[in-house]
Design brief:
- The chain has one domain.
- Helix content is 62%, strand content 0%.
- The longest helix is centred in the middle third of the chain and has 27 residues.
- The structure holds fe (ii) ion (2 copies).
Length: 290
């Protein structure tokens, strides 16, 4: 992405900068010599708990056509809410690329890279807010749910910014097929009779189509083999992350046994009836849809 852009020494940039005119070139040079090191490990505020819950029942339930559409829609509500881990990943990709190029004294990426990636980051934050709005429309206390950080945490811990972008692309691409991806999710919301969810999943679907296009603009130029290479790399990266976590597991935060059976309680609250139990799930078994 940066090829074609000349390396610019910070001092030269500083002398021409309007900021240098305001704060003085000496101060500016001192500041530009500091290495930027963004913190990319996800953090949440005091409303959140069970950040490292490893269960993934919603990912099983929304695809289980033996279950009623309203239960599958409840799983989609949770999946939207949990999407706050995606802006966490994108923020880290953008910040680390920016810092790496700045620390190397490079001019960095074109503005179009930042506008596209930050548009996607905002979309993903909005998807989580759509989930929040769906929960609140049903009177559900979403802060009681285990909205984990396992995805953004393991990517920040185990992968370079480019590798994280490859994995993000692989996931978004897997959401396109009609039978199990975003068109399916929209159909489930419609079949459940939840009109707000149907509207929100229409927005969500449209955004995800755009995100695959953003990958063409922002990720493809970074890989010699383009997006074909990204698809090839993704499987090996999932394996590498799984092996790294087997050696050095994610932190445990307390009452894991009590958290792992949260689905029946949540489903009862949303639907007003009991549902079939979900088999034991673990995030280490999770992969993007085939
Ligand atoms: Fe999304
Ligand atoms: Fe997306």
């Amino acid at each position: 992405m940066t090829s074609g852009y000349s390396k610019v020494r910070p001092e030269r940039k500083a002398s021409a900068s309007p900021i240098a005119t305001i704060i003085g070139p000496k101060m500016f040079r001192w500041r530009t010599r500091e290495r930027a090191r963004p913190g990319v490990m996800p953090r949440r505020d005091a409303r959140f708990s069970n950040l490292f819950d490893t269960s993934t029942p919603a990912d099983i339930v929304y695809l289980d056509e033996a279950r009623e559409a309203d239960e599958r829609n409840a799983a989609l509500m949770f999946k939207r809410l949990r999407e706050m881990d995606v802006p966490e990943v994108i923020a880290g990709i953008v910040a680390e690329h920016w810092a790496g190029e700045r620390n190397a004294g490079e001019r960095g990426r074109p503005w179009a890279y930042y506008t596209a990636m930050l548009r996607q980051m905002w979309d993903e934050a909005r998807h989580a807010m759509l989930g929040q709005a769906l929960m609140e429309s049903r009177g559900i206390d979403w802060t009681a749910l285990p909205i984990n950080v396992t995805f953004s945490w393991k990517l920040a811990r185990c992968c370079s910014p480019l590798e994280r972008h490859v994995l993000l692309y692989a996931i978004e691409l897997s959401l396109m097929p009609r039978d199990r991806g975003k068109p399916y999710e929209h159909r489930v919301a419609a079949e459940s009779g939840d009109r707000l969810s149907m509207l929100f999943h229409d927005y969500d679907w449209a955004d995800e189509v755009l995100h695959v296009e953003i990958a063409r603009r922002c990720l493809k130029p970074e890989l010699p083999g383009g997006l074909t290479e990204a698809r090839r790399q993704a499987d090996a990266l999932w394996e590498r992350i799984a092996a790294a976590l087997a050696r050095d597991p994610m932190p445990l935060d307390g009452r894991t046994d009590a958290v792992r059976d949260w689905w029946p309680r949540f489903a009862r609250e949303v639907l007003g009836r009991d549902v079939e139990p979900v088999r034991d799930t673990d995030v280490k078994d999770w992969r993007p849809l085939d």
